[in-house]
Structures are given as C-alpha cells and as structure tokens.
Write a structure and sequence with these properties.
single chain, about 130 residues, alpha/beta, Rossmann fold, 5 strands, about 20% strand
C-alpha cells in the first residue's frame, strides 16, 4: 500500500462564499494536519493567488462575481499541475465537471467530512 502524503507538506486553498461551509472545510482539513488558506469568494481567491501557490484548491463552483470555475481556469493557467476539487449543491454540476481536465474532481454539498478527507488524500496522493 502506498504511503499517504504528509498533510503538513500540502497547502490547500478553500474558496466558498458561504461562511459556514468555509469554517467547516477549514476545521476538517486543519484537524487532519493540512495547511489551509481560506478565501471568502472568487475575487479574494484571485488576490491570494497573486502571492501564493497551492497543491490543491477546493472551489465552490457557483459563486456570485468570480465563480469557482473561473478561479479554476486561472489556477490551471498559472500552475498546470495543481489539483482541483469543485464543490456544489447542484447535482447537474457533477456531470459538467466530469468532462473537464485531468486532476479535477467533484464533491457534493453538504460535504461529508470523511468523504472529503478521503478524496483529499486520494487527490494529493496523485490518483485522479
């Protein structure tokens, strides 16, 4: 069995316009040892990305203003190897994300903590 990635070495950007969702994702991932940076919306994420890089981004797919989809495109342009997990409460989004580029994944809202941690470990371990 391959070794799990060291959580402390992995930087994760969480972008969601819902404060409760941001807090929950931050709490879950931080409790597992990941270094988490939180953005309140797409515009905030783009500002952060001007200064910092990440191994993984968890992006709310649909947000007012700059959407997670747009943030994901910017991430891919700047860091092609970054892994992305989109999240949404809209089931039909899953189908459109499935057709996107390699290294992109989806998790439905409300996010189940165990499923999130398993997906993050798998994605950061290199499985796509």
């Amino acid at each position: 069995m391959p070794a799990l990635p060291d959580p402390g070495a992995s930087r994760i950007l969480v972008v969601d316009d819902d404060p409760a969702t941001r807090r929950a994702l931050d709490r879950i991932l931080t409790s597992k040892g990941y270094t988490v940076r939180v953005a309140t919306d797409g515009e905030d994420a783009l500002r952060i990305l001007e200064q910092e890089s990440f191994d993984l981004a968890i992006l709310d797919y649909i947000m007012p203003g700059v959407s997670g989809a747009v943030v994901g495109m910017h991430l891919r342009e700047r860091w092609p190897s970054v892994r992305i997990i989109y999240s949404s409460g809209y089931a039909q989004i899953d189908d459109s994300i499935a057709a996107t580029s390699r290294g992109t994944h989806f998790i439905a809202k409300p996010v189940d903590a165990q499923k999130l941690v398993e997906l993050v470990r798998r994605v950061l371990g290199g499985a796509s």
